[in-house]
Amino acid sequence: MANINDIARRAGVSVSTVSRVLNHHPYVSQLKKAAVQRVIDELDYVPNRSAVDLIRKETRSFGVIMPYNNNQAFDQLLHGILNRSVERDYTVMVLPTKYNTEKELSYLNKLKNKQLDGIIITSRANSWDAIIPFTKYGAIVACEYTEHPEIGCAYMDRYGSYLETFQILKDKGHSHVAFTTARGEESNSTQLTIKAYQQIFGNFPPEYHIKDCYSIADGVRAAQQLLQSELNPTAIYANGDEVATGIYKYARSIGIGVPEDLAIIGQENQPVGIGLELSTVDHQLVKVGELAFDLTIEKSKEKVEIPYRIILRQSI
Amino acid sequence: MANINDIARRAGVSVSTVSRVLNHHPYVSQLKKAAVQRVIDELDYVPNRSAVDLIRKETRSFGVIMPYNNNQAFDQLLHGILNRSVERDYTVMVLPTKYNTEKELSYLNKLKNKQLDGIIITSRANSWDAIIPFTKYGAIVACEYTEHPEIGCAYMDRYGSYLETFQILKDKGHSHVAFTTARGEESNSTQLTIKAYQQIFGNFPPEYHIKDCYSIADGVRAAQQLLQSELNPTAIYANGDEVATGIYKYARSIGIGVPEDLAIIGQENQPVGIGLELSTVDHQLVKVGELAFDLTIEKSKEKVEIPYRIILRQSI
DNA sequence: TTGAAAGCGCTAACAG
DNA sequence: CTGTTAGCGCTTTCAA
């Protein structure tokens, strides 16, 4: 592979001149510029990216911390991020953690070792206190709200949407309302769900909260636990449309009508919810992702809230 | 930020010794090793990745060319790739093309400029002839079959699965069978679909082939075109479960029974298909992704076929 | 407008 | 076992 010296030699100029034409600097004579360009084309030369990054001290690439991909919510966020990255000619690295704190820290280290200019956190395993020291090495923006002034935030109004959803349920006459979440109280969304729930309905029996829900199968399991007990919830707020689907299918399989006997509402407006006419709250995650990227590239520490939309269909 | 010279100086050793402990080389006295490690910890030092990549001439990172993410098929492939990349401590860059040939070539260039050690192509816009020259600079593996000996392939047996699916439809007595595809004949999958179709049913009116189908909405559009004409297909093979869902919903909305009046079968075993009990052919794309990664890391040019599974549910 | 030269931060002969 | 030194391939003063 040819390098900049080869180009310089064959074009009969110095490496600085080659560098200048490479970077479109002014003050290069047309003559030399043409000569250099000819050799570049001839040798099909492109500058070594590591060398450029090393001296420029930036890589024009961002990392995206997510527990895993192939999940509607995270893929929507990633999609938004990719939209913008293409426009701005940045490159994005996917950093899957499975909520492993060590792994997550090792990814944050890529800021320190100058492999990444910035990191977008879609969901995290570590505490902010563990994360914030890394802001010294590059922009860190989160897809959730946090007070910390070091962290830019592009977030959906989770608390507001939960409040409104529970209120709708209450207004429809439901008082026995159960809900599902992905993780336990270590998760921000779970905390907000519980807080909003209590705000509207007051305390609840712990059996009304089903954790570890990610997939259709988890929804089935949740429904089994909820519907076979004497808890008799009349409504369930699922943490995603796939989970809602599992609940719906199980309910129907044992002859429970939706929404007559059981109201179901999911989240994120996924295809499966559209297919089954499930009501849902759309947190517009693609937009959140796009904004998160914008904040990162601007090294902004702003807190920007994206509005949610509640979509009422047949299941409530 | 401290660099290797700072560490060497403060530890009272040479940079080579620091480099040795960094890279776990043998033949470093316990004493010096400890001294170096102490300073490293003290200064919270990590080696600059660009410098290391520059001299090592490798980055331990792969790129994944895909038209876009947030699509069940590509996200499954990516998921498989990420699974393995975490295990092997590689990093992956997502390279979304929207099937733009220029963009795709610019990504392939990242092999040449040493930004990437290898690239996995999940779907492509360029011809192989345009792509193959880049194999000189790094491993390129595809998630589709190609004869070219320079390209490793981890692929699903598309042709076989299409053949079997059409045969099943034929065996069930269908002779008026329509189908949808994402792209036109520039796409490998589309070509194989048509070839398999003709193999089983012979030629077909061009109206039986609906293109540009990606989403539920596209499925609705396809169904409108197909069901309102006098073509009267009795079965439709959709190129994905979301498209199948759109077809299903539209059919139901105009009083057409599934499967009595219309058989529908989709692809990729997506959640929405599970929810609606749609039959599907699962190409096991997560496995394909995992294998593609393995081939890339081994710089293998093997052709490995992953078996498909036809999942019969209620729609056929 | 141009080139020489000094790095960027690291690895790996090579010599001791 | 350890240090010296020569790069890796590029950008950017600085002086001309």
Automatic annotation (TrEMBL), chains A, B:
Domain of life: Bacteria
HTH lacI-type domain boundaries: 2-56
InterPro entries the record matches: HTH_LacI, Lambda_DNA-bd_dom_sf, Peripla_BP/Lac1_sug-bd_dom, Peripla_BP_I
SUPFAM superfamilies recorded: lambda repressor-like DNA-binding domains, Periplasmic binding protein-like I
GO molecular function, one term: transcription cis-regulatory region binding
Keywords: DNA-binding, Transcription, Transcription regulation
Protein name as annotated: LacI family DNA-binding transcriptional regulator
